[in-house]
User: Fold these one by one.
Assistant:
Number 1:
Amino acid sequence: MIARPAGPAGRLIVALDVPGAARAAALAAQVAPHAALVKLGLELFCAEGPAAMAPVAARAPVFLDLKLHDIPNTVAGAVRSLAPLGAAMLTVHAGGGPAMIAAAREAAEAVGAARPLILAVTVLTSMDESALAATGVAGGAASQVLRLARMAMAAGADGLVCSPREVAPIRDALGEAPALVVPGIRPAGAALGDQSRVATPEEAVRDGADWIVVGRPVTGAADPAAAARAITESLGR
Ligand code: C5P
């Protein structure tokens, strides 16, 4: 099981949102000296299947961000099927409920000491108040995030994926228990892309993030290795 970083080093996760395992593996090789993990998501996994993992995992530990959400038995089966790929982190939707999260954790435990961390995704940041209301959730995102975060941790999640603005409230409510993995990060001066509410790497870690997820500011840089190194160095190494 990957250890939570104790100091400033080992906090950068580079999101490899690129088409094709070959490109992802090439980027992983470039950033690996300066990143703790790389993140692979649904687009690549759906296009190329589990075979996309091996060439990337050979270069860096992998956060496999598939956001599983189904009945407990099916999610447990998916975690068992994914286990041989060797991901260091897997995501499930907290909205799947406590039994689903517990089943994911139990299936991960069966892997043994090298098991992946089970991270719960609370409210997608694409969901605004009216979208939440349309799904029957009244009261806004902030309270729903904390409700789901508490439930997910009680059910056995190792941690949570959350936006920078949720880090401090989650730490206030749940203390040090959850591993917090935080996307929506932009080094000062970097292009926002489609991210609207962002924090710098330093701000997110100061608020209590364990790991930060950065994609395009690294993968779109002329020199991805240098971009990753600059982020890691900004955290003090
Ligand atoms: O390129 P960028 O740094 O915006 O990439 C961030 C990564 O984190 C993407 O893979 C994106 O899907 C993911 N993510 C996010 N916001 C969330 C959850 C995941 O940006 N709330």
Number 2:
Amino acid sequence: MSNRYAIILAAGQGTRMKSKLYKVLHPVCGKPMVEHVLEQVKHVNMSEVVTVVGHGAELVQAQLGERSEFVLQAEQLGTAHAVMQAKDRLQNKDGITLVVCGDTPLITAETMSSLIQHHEEQQAKATILTAHQENPAGYGRIIRDEAGLVKRIVEHKDANDEELAVQEVNTGTYCFDNRALFEALDKVNNDNVQGEYYLPDVIEILQSEGETIGAFQTPLGSETLGVNDRVALSQAERLMKARINEQHMRNGVSLIDPENTYISSEAVIGRDTVIYPGTVILGKTTIGEDCIIGPNSEVKDSKIVDRTTVKQSVVHDSDVGSDVNIGPFAHIRPQSAIADEVKIGNFVEIKKANFGKGSKASHLSYIGDAEVGANVNIGCGSITVNYDGKNKHLTTIEDNVFIGCNSNLVAPVTVGKGAYVAAGSTITKNVPGEALSIARARQENKEGYASKLNK
Ligand code: UD1
Ligand code: MG
């Protein structure tokens, strides 16, 4: 096998996105487009991967890190000019070079490998990955001669009516003989409507020199979607979502309504978990087996173990154990750790709190900055008063504590092991273990007074 090199084009601003964010950093299913491309390139065996950066260079480099080398295209004079920036690094090397655009997030390693295989079989100097597009607007068109051989690629903006009618498009992914590529690049000019150095012009140059040009038309046209604006971005999102969801279903996860289920490309979900509609699973989330998530739940950057239920609830940046019941309408805020068999019921907000095994906050509570032990019962309407207007303070509730309904625990405060707090108490001092603490006004009954008032 000859040496293989990859060049990822990622220097453009992405004017058509109309965005502050550089185009290739726009996420598709939670991951920047260029990251999707690099990951797939990495699955193809490459001796060297070079990413061409320009707009947002530092951000793109930070995103891709050590998995790629980088060359800077200080001014964006076109895709051929972009590839030229890798010249010093690659020009004297024997082998084949795959060029792929950072704005085609759906392209897969399998398709790249098929392209390379076709290129090698045909012993071509250049092979274009082409696709049939019902609506080819915006793409470069593949122009073939009477014998069906590729002559050149014409950009949409430079095409005449006959060329515009062609539905075979350039996907922006190519395979080249490395030396032939850099020799041909020297001959590319910018004599076109956009005044840019077009990489596709390399095809016509090599063809006119009598070299073999290959074209591999992928049957998976949707994989080659190039994202230049927000409309295409939403199409990419939809296609990627379908791909991710299908993968989970094939792995044994039930999605009741995959159209309305949004799972980030980094999420891991165990078998026999059921995801109900309207659920959004974001970031690096891990969900175990036999869980029920949704309907209408959002889980972000969290770990949930097995047999846990999250209904109509939000869980962010937290750890949740097995056999936990969350919701409906609960909010688990960052840095919370919920142990096994816990119940967090309706209208309960948890923030930066640890909940020990088997503890319950079943209704209408706020528990923030708290250490809650095992088998604690937090009654309806109870809250930790964690904020004094300047600082946050810790509430500690030890094992087997019972907090009566509508209690305020004014932090910093500790309720000792096995203690009881009577309903309606405002606790400002530590409660010793096994004690009963009552901190409310005494009740006074005035016999017969109501009927007097009613007269
Ligand atoms: C390009 C192709 C077109 C093809 C389409 C597929 C050219 C001239 N046209 O058009 O034939 O059908 O992709 O999606 O190549 N870039 C740089 N430096 C530059 C210019 C672009 O790094 O100076 C990068 C961009 O960041 C982007 C990629 O190259 O990732 C493609 O550029 P873009 O402007 O999106 O080209 P298209 O108009 O989509
Ligand atoms: Mg593009």
